[in-house]
Design goal:
Blueprint (H helix, E strand, L loop, with lengths): L4 H11 L11 H11 L2 E2 L9 H10 L6 H7 L3 E5 L3 E5 L3 H10 L9 H4 L1 H14 L21 H11 L4 E2 L21 E2 L14
Amino acid sequence: MSLTLAALRRHVVGAQGYATRYRVAGIDDVADAIRRLSAVQLDSISTVDRSHRLTLLSRVGRYPPGTVTRLLAGGRVFEYWAHEACLLPIEDWPVARSRMLSSPDHPWWGDVIDREPELADHIMGEIRERGPLGSRHFEGARTEGGMWSLKPAKRMLEALWSAGRLVVGARPWSPRGRPAPFSSRRSTTCCGTGRSPSGCWASGT
C-alpha cells in the first residue's frame, strides 16, 4: 500500500479529530473527545485560554464552563500523570491506580509524605471532616524559588494526589480563563478517596 504525501497529511490531520466547522458541544462530546485522545495535558499557560480548553475546543467546538468539573465530579474523567498532568478517561483508572501504588513518591519532591507525616495527616483529616478543600483553605507561606515556590500545604496536597490518596474534584474557572480562586496550574480541590474519583465533587469548571 502506498500513499501520496498529501493523502498522508490528510490522514494524520483527520486522526487528530479537529472540528471542520463551528460547533456547540455538550458534556458527552467532551467526554468522548478525552477518551478518543487518551490524555489531554493540563498547563498553566493561558495566553488565549487554558491549554486543555484549547485542545478540546478545537475538536468539539464551544462547550459550557463547568463541563470538565462535571466530568470530574461524575467520575467520568480524572486527573493524573500521563506524560505530564492530564485529564484521563475513567477507563484508565486501573492503570493509573497501579502506578499510584507502585510509585507513591512525588516525581519532583520525592517522599515528602514520609518526611512530613504530621502535615499529611492534618490535611487528610481536614478533608475527611470538611469535604473537598483547596490549598487556600490551609495556612502557610510560599517559599522562595519562583513559580514553583509552593507553600507546604499546597506541596503536600500535590504529593497526596500523586500518591492516589486524594483526587482532584474540580477545575475552578474564571471568565478570563484562569483558575479561580487558585493560582497554580491545577486546582487542588480534592476529596479524600484513593479508590476511585467517582465519589468526588466540588464547584468550578
